[in-house]
Design goal:
By secondary structure, the chain is α/β, with parallel strands linked by helices. It has two domains: about 25-280, Metallo-beta-lactamase, Chain A; about 290-375, Immunoglobulins (Immunoglobulin-like), CATH 2.60.40. Helix content is about 30%, strand content about 35%. The strands form four sheets. It has a seven-stranded mixed sheet with strand order 6-5-4-3-2-1-13. Strands 7-8-9-10-11-12 form a six-stranded mixed sheet, with helices on one face. Strands 15-21-20-17-18 form a five-stranded mixed sheet, with no helix packed on it. Helix 2 (about 85-95) packs across helix 4 (about 115-125). The longest helix is centred in the last third of the chain and has 27 residues, at about 380-409. Mean pLDDT is about 90; it is low at about 10-35.
Length: about 400
Amino acid sequence: MKNLNVALTVTLLLVSALSLYFLFSPICEGISPIYKIKIGCVEYVNVTVLVDNNPYSDLISPWGISLYLEAEDLRILFDTGPSSEALRINAERLGINLRLLDFIVISHEHGDHVLGLEYIAELNRNLTVYVPKHMSVSCKVWIKNLGFKVLEMDATGVIDEGVAIIGELYGPPYEQALAVNVKGIGLIILVGCSHPGVDKIVVKAADDLNCEPYAVIGGFHLSGASREKMKSIAKNLMESGLKKVYPIHCSGEGFRRFFEEEYHEAYGDGHVGLMLSFSEVRASKPAEFEISNLSIAPSEAQTGETVTISVELKNIGESEGSYNLTLKVNGAIEDEKTITLAGGESRIVEFKVAKDSAGTYNIEINGLTRTLKVKEAPAQPIENFLLYIAITITAAIIIMAIAISKRKK
């Protein structure tokens, strides 16, 4: 009986503890999304560096980072910078309306990444904020007390079509990243400080989502790093398949210059106010020409009369190109012209021809054919002939009169 009472007591204590945990836990609302391997894709994503300590123009540049994304009908804020002031002023100057945000992703709990949340709370508290599961309890409680719904992420998960959070890695602290898969390009990866290593984050994103990485932007945590470490990280990034790298925030001026020198084509010079747009680059259709509407005016002419022969030439491709037109008369080349047209442009091209012999001529321009009839020009009218005779006789009389006058003298 005594053992039974002990067992019941232990059971009641466990049930009570679990009940209290679920009843009073202030940290998370809802449940984590179902993790998916298939991320899907978006047609484009625009990324604006809203806060960064690399200055530009009249924007505020305190130590911190915040990136604003637009992906089709989504508006996402990744990290919020170190203050409400920086976020508000820069958003206003860049023309970004943060009231329209769909959700917020926080990379990790450091103040230069989260304190701008206070300004967002003034605009719209009805937002979900995605945080790393192992973020400190105090930070999660602070975010929740601002009025936001806090959703913890412990593994890579798709949160919208083409958009995924890359599950946390330990730095310290625990840190997560954001990735957007752009159709025809690959992953655009956003990082906060990359405490666990930016190269490791990129590899995890590619492995978890089974997609090729295209670009990474954010803080790389390499300020003051040795040249050997910078060289190793840069090498790993390029070997991961990245095409563009934008080191900002805590990446360090040394790494920025090193990467620019060693991998100039891949380097992107980031700073506050930088606006990037990523979308599929579709190859332009090469120039392709079609000719039509061969015309002869007049279609029947007299010997010696100038005839206009024309065709319509159109570039049905998308790229500029040149095309050679050859005019043949009875199979012999009469004239040639080279015409350059932009993609989609069309033009009427004319040739001039005059024939001294009567007959039927076969006209051909690059495979298009028509016939031209040339007739002998009619004889001069009789009135013109009589006028000629009269003028001739008159001239002869004048000459004879002049001659006779000279003899008399």
